[in-house]
Amino acid sequence: MPIDKKSMDHVKRANRITKEVNVQFDNFYIVGGYRFPEERGAQAETTLSFSYLGKIAADETLDEYVLDGKSLLELPSDNAAYNSVKKIMKTAGYL
């Protein structure tokens, strides 16, 4: 199943805007939201020519924090979404 056009267009647009406003960066990565099917990561890399680092895990606590306006920096360290982002950051070489 192909990745959806809206997602591909969004990534292309984000990359284009960073160049238009002269944002300097060494890498441009793809990170999937919690609904992004993990098995489509390789297809996203091929289609968009950017590295796919993983996806943010779905998590009810994260949803509650967002809806209540709480800082995501206060998520507990055992939270699934927190740990998935930590894994993505390690893959990118930032941790």
**What distance separates the N and C termini?**
33 Å
What is the string of SSEs from the N terminus onward?
HEHEHH
Helix content: 40-55%
Approximately what portion of the residues adopt beta-strand conformation? 5-15%
Count of DSSP strands: 2
Shape: globular
User: Biggest sheet, open or closed, and with what strands and sense?
Assistant: 2 strands, parallel
Mean pLDDT equals 91
Helix/strand/pairing category: mainly alpha
How many domains in all?
A: 2
Overview of this protein structure:
This protein is mainly alpha-helical and 95 residues long. It has two domains: 55 residues; 39 residues, no CATH class. Helices cover 48% and strands 9% of the residues. It contains four helices and two strands. The protein is globular, with a radius of gyration of 15 Å. The chain starts with a helix and ends with a helix.
Brief overview, please?
This protein is mostly helical. It folds into two domains: 1-55; 57-95, no CATH class. It has helices at 5-20, 41-48, 60-68, 80-92; strands spanning 29-32, 51-55.
Topology:
Blueprint: H1 5-20, E1 29-32, H2 41-48, E2 51-55, H3 60-68, H4 80-92
Parallel strand pairs: 1-2
Keywords, separated by commas or semicolons:
single chain; 48% helix; mainly alpha; 95 residues
